Amino acid sequence: MPAMHAADIDWSRLFHAYGPASDTPAHLRALTGPDDDARTGALDHLWSAVIHQGTPWTVTPPAALVVAELLTDPETMRPANDVLRAILLDFLGEVAEAALPDTPEDEIRAVAYPASGEDEIGPALDAILAENEVDWDGDAVQAIMARVVLDLRAIAPTLLDHVTACLDDPDLRVRVDATGAAGTLALIPGVGADGLAARLEGTAARSGDHHERCAAMLTLGALGVAPRAFLADPHPAVRACAALAPALAADPAATREILAALRDPAEADSWLTIPLRLVPGRLRFALVAAAVERAESFEELLPAALAIAGMTSHWTVDVDWGPLLTAAFPAPVGEPPVLTPAQRAYLGALVANDEIWNPKMVNPISWFRAAGLPYEREACRRLIS
After folding, report:
1. Among 104, 149, 206, 360, whose CB has the most other CB atoms within 10 angstroms?
2. Which helix (H) or strand (E) holds 325?
3. What's the CA gap between 305 and 320, in Å, rounded?
4. Cβ burial 238-257 (10 Å sphere, 16+ → b, else e)
């Protein structure tokens, strides 16, 4: 696809989360301008308007192309702009996530190009640009939004070319963010990522920084590679990230590495001081999900479950202790309840943690209800007494 510059785009026919995208070109220019406040505003515009809580708009594909070109702009490449390059790469990773397949391609195309109703798409776009009342659930608007996803997929190879150019950047954070963005782009249907896996394996073998090696492991895993050799890496975070690779799901050594990391979940969370795109949130969340999927019994999970129970809170029930509760109680307890030693130990650890219990929180209730348990601390205490 030929290079696209802001001047080549008819921004008057595009919109973002807050309306017509007529303000987007000025923000894009400000990214490499001398005004720090304008640059901050431009970055806010990218993250709140051009991509809004993961939702792309018609302005997103062309804006992403302009941002990708900025990665190799002489102004952006100055060492003083290392942080800017990293943020732009993270933005492109977010754009890539919006194009990932959660619906079959043929279904998206059927929505984007309906057999009838094509004449309604123009008026629907006019209504959006005029900021009139719009039926966002209507077929015409849904067609416009489906075409955005297809446009993102069409430009993904071009975005990937620009992103991979940053894999050898002098700045560590830029390389890490480039690795995550490249891995996300490579998952988009139709994107050719030939040579990316071999390149990242070479990077991981050479890099002296565990964040860069972890980012490489996660991207290799997303690409379907089994990075078994890195289960022997000197850093536990790298071993854990390598073990998360789906291709190693049946590998006992990988499972042991995940369970070993979870014996001290707070320590595991501290390993990564640079966020990695393919591990959203805390590292322990990804480790718990993999451990629950791979362990052959809850007894095998118990040491990790007890460690999690001792340091978690009601806020993270959906991503750490809740899934472990389901693993401990795959079926509701009977009446009268008869608990196994492992169930008793885990429930006891939860009872002992003050931060687990908040009657105003709805999410823990559903996890306890599925287990056939009351979300009442004293009632659970009686069960294990």
Report:
1. 149
2. helix 321-328
3. 9
4. bbbbbbbbeebeebeebbeb
Grouping H, G, I as helix, E, B as strand and the rest as coil, residue 292 is: helix
Q: Cα–Cα–Cα angle for 48, 97, 62, nearest 5°?
A: 60
Contact between 166 and 143 under an 8 Å Cβ cutoff? The reply is: no
What size, in residues, is the chain? 385
Amino acid at 255: T
Whole-number Cα distances in Å, 151 to 57, 112, 220? 10, 11, 26
Nearest alpha-carbon partner for 342 in 284, 297, 291? 297
The CA-CA-CA angle for residues 107, 10, 111, to 5°, reads 10
Helix 321-328 to helix 363-370 angle, to the nearest 10 degrees?
10
Burial 178-197, CB ≥16 within 10 A → b, else e: bbbbbbbbbbbeebebeebb
Q: How far apart are CA 59 and CA 56, in angstroms?
A: 8
151-163 residue pLDDT tens:
999 999 999 999 9
Handedness of CA 265, 268, 273, 274 (dihedral sign): negative
Six-digit token pair at 69? 């070109």
Q: Within 13 Å of residue 334, how many CA atoms lie on the same side as its CB?
A: 4
**Residues sharing a CB contact under 8 Å with residue 11, sequence separation 6 or more, in sequence order:** 21, 22, 24, 25, 59, 62
Task: Estimate the crossing angle of helix 139-164 against helix 60-70, to 10 degrees.
Answer: 10
> Rounded to 10 degrees, what is the CA torsion of 314, 320, 272, 218?
-150
Residue with tokens 């802001």: 6
d(CA 64, CA 4): 10
User: What's the alpha-carbon Rg for the chain, to the nearest Å?
Assistant: 24
What per-residue confidence (pLDDT) applies to 280?
84
Residue 343's contacts (CB-CB under 8 Å, 6 or more residues apart) are: 298, 328, 329, 333
pLDDT digits (tens, 9 = 90+) for 239-261: 999 999 999 999 999 999 999 99
Prediction pTM value: 0.90
pLDDT at 116: 79
